[in-house]
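Hi there,

I know you've been waiting on this one. I reran it after we fixed the sequence typo, so this is the corrected version. Both the input and the resulting structure follow.
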Amino acid sequence: MTQPTPIWHTALALAAADVPVLPLRRGKRPFANCPACEQSACGDRPHMKAAGPCRCPRPCHAWAAATTDRFVLTSPDWVSAWRAAVAVAYHPAGAGVTVVDLDNAAAVTWARENLPTTRTVQTTRGEHWIYRGTMQSANKVRPGVDIKSRMTYARWLGLGTGTPTDLPPAVRALVMKEETTPARRGVVSSTPQRATWDHTVATGCRHTERYVLTGLDRGLAMVRSCSESGAGSKAYAVASFLATQHADCPGPCGLEALGQDIVDAAVSVGVPAPYARRAVTRGLHSAGKAA
């Protein structure tokens, strides 16, 4: 990079302090995966939940691309991303911390009444509370509160004020409560009238039953592996990939039966059923082919 940006300088300083970083584009989102990594076609990175062989030199896979390697951060594959970046993100667990993201004034008030004080970073609408120690991540553990640690990223907004304290049981309990709730609701994790895929519902599919069901099984395993976060996005990706495989079939291909299995897999790891159905429906239609 011939003209380093302030964002790039910040990233290098954090990396030198053993904080894994990555660039963010507009909307506070990571840069999109390259074509080889899109929709997990590469098999994902070795340290992801769905561990795979990918060692893409580009900033693909969001938090999983975060690094402290100066050679990577200054490599040609990252240069264009840094030039277009609007912010720096970091992998909290990679830095040994957990971020309690308080998204509004009510959430901040709740934290001050219920959590031990720690380092605090001001955000646009609320605060980040930084604790020493790592845990699984989860969104919306209560109104306006997200937990960011493993398998996610957080936007770097400065050092903040105060001294980081150890991750308290009260924060861990928030995620434990969220994760056990779906399992206690039999209605949430069950779907009535499950369909079965075979050529009686896919009279226009050019694939063999073994081919389709093997691909489905692999996709379902990927969704179920996202037990900490990302199952909804993975369900969309699996549905989109399967739809693409059937794009050249004369149809019908009975994709609604495959989609139902993907919805069930997502619900089984805690994704709300309406969200899972929306994600899968969008994925099935992403290739321009109806079920």
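Quick highlight: The first strand starts at residue 21 and ends at 25.

Best,
R. S.
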